[in-house]
Amino acid sequence: MARSKVKLAYITNDAARRVTYKKRKRGMMKKISELSTLCGVDACAIVYNSRQDAHPLDEPEVWPSRMGVERVIEKFRQMPEIDQNRKRMDHADYLTLRIAKEKEKLKKKRHDNNEKEFQLRMHDFMLRNRLPENLSFFDLNNLAYHTDMKLREIDMRLQMLLEKENKEMMMDFASSKSSRKNMNHFSFMEENNHNNYNSGFEMILGNAGIN
Predict the structure, then answer these.
(1) For the chain, what are the domain ranges?
(2) Residue span of the signal peptide, if any (predicted)?
(3) Which tens digits make up the pLDDT trace of 79-126?
(4) CATH class for domain 14-82?
(5) Is the pLDDT confidence value at 20 over 70?
């Protein structure tokens, strides 16, 4: 059974939030350890508890160790700035990326909704055989645009069908021409054989003294 998709939103329930924090933190640390071991890469993690749940004296949890974290950070700082910024992402960058993706999804949904609305309107127009009087300039312009696009699709479809039909006709014509050629060749061979047979038969009769 597939898991239900988790809603990415702040958990307001204190107990549920603490349980989720411990579970997710443990899972993240495990994944980082596996990544470092399997791929042989330097990695580290620093996790701060939320302000509501943290104790004033709590230290951030680190992986693999405090010295290990300092070593990875120092190695990172020694890299050229262009390499440091490559594929670098902080919380603001992550949110910006998520917003851009959601905007793209919203744009696609709006486009799909506009297409469906247009199809419903066209169906209604065809049943009524007239346009509603309450259409705005934007609606009419949008309707004209979609109608033009549909007409272009129809023209392209007709062109494809016409090319397909012409291709099939050319193939049938070539096949028919080839068949006629074979028939003519067969008739010629049959007639030639018949003439040869008659000539041979007459020659035999002549040699036998039969007129």
Answers:
(1) 14-82
(2) none
(3) 998 888 888 888 888 889 999 999 999 999 998 998 888 778 777 777
(4) alpha beta
(5) yes
